[in-house]
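Running co-folding for biotin.
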Amino acid sequence: MNNIYAFKYSLLQNNTFSRLSLRQNLIVLDELSSTNDYLKELLSNIKPLREGTAIMARHQTRGRGQRGSTWLTTKDENLTFSVLLYPDNLAVEETFRLNMLICLGIQQALSQYQIEATVKWPNDIYVQDKKIGGILIENKLKGGLIRSSIIGIGLNVNQQSFPAAIAHKATSLRLAKQAATPFPIDEFCISILHGMMQYYQTHATHETAEILSEYNNRLYRKGIPAKFLVQGKEQIGRIVGANAQGKLAVDIEEQRLHFDLKEISFII
Ligand code: BTN
């Protein structure tokens, strides 16, 4: 049996240009298979859901990650939530714009906790050399435009030990801050949601070049010689930056190459 709690979070108070109303719903459930799937179901079942509606699960049992992976998280220790957006007039080819806005919004929200996060292309959130969170964006398309977008966010909050296979490359808010006591997850959720949505709202109309430049300034391992796996071969490369289509430019052996997601991976 699920207990349901509903919180309100405020957005851009007194901003008359805000597309979102001042008070949005954050619905918290004890257990869900996946907050993205639940929000998707709500979206298809019920009369229009308001932009900014968010679902958080205290325990997510079948979380999904990027590229068909699973997102494992321990009960009551980490943050798993999804939020609904209706991007304004955003063409399918501009999907990466949304990705950048969300990454930067989260990174900005984390800075309120004095966490200096970077973005590991395309949308992993890193603190130093370790992943603190990930994003799964699922869009519904209509007539070449993104009609609605479900932004699923997983952030490690209080977890202090990770399975051996990922222990060297995973961290949490508590570990990064070396905090003696756990962080209240509901509170953390509201501040991440609030910070991220404020960033999204204030930057949604900015030029892509401007967003791209900010994204590239926050890029993990940019300009630093590092090891990559390219077509099964280990290579040393130097990240130059992403382009508006979301491809990653990397200098390898004096050549500038552009990769999409399936063509390159980091060796960490
Ligand atoms: C990644 O692979 O890095 C992306 C992970 C995204 C996980 C979040 S947790 C909340 C939301 N619900 C899901 O099933 N996945 C996303």
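Result summary
The pocket of biotin is lined by residues 34-36, 60, 63-66, 69, 71, 80-82, 124, 134-136, 152-154 (CB under 6 Å).
The first strand starts at residue 4 and ends at 10.
Job closed.
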